[in-house]
Write a structure and sequence with these properties.
This protein is an alpha+beta fold. It has a single domain (about 1-115), classed as TATA-Binding Protein (2-Layer Sandwich), CATH 3.30.310.70. Helices cover about 30% and strands about 30% of the residues. Helix 1 (about 10-25) crosses helix 3. The longest helix is centred in the last third of the chain and has 16 residues, at about 100-115. The two termini are about 25 Å apart. The model has no long low-confidence stretch (mean pLDDT about 80).
Length: about 120
Amino acid sequence: MQRDLTIASPCEQTLALLISTLALHDIRLERSFDLRSALHDQPECPCPHHGTTHCTCQYVVLLAYEPAPAAPPAVITAHECDGITRVLVAASEPGGRLAWPLLAALDEALTNATAEV
């Protein structure tokens, strides 16, 4: 099960809203990958989207931990290109389901993100 949404805002702004809204629902987000950090020492990394010698896109992977013990985290990816962020939320296990509290919190966060644009 997965959820997909495109938001007309920068990645970091979208992530800040996700983090603050999900925290209100006791869902902790942990950043497990950040493209900008990974490319910090690679100043001339070509961009597959723009064809430029320096990539200005952002790609972040977050793990969403619910308060329920032993529940596997959901995986949230955010990919920004040209100021548009695509957010994809998926269960971390094949065939896994996203929990309803997480889906409700995500809907609230993404509605807030869309309203602030």
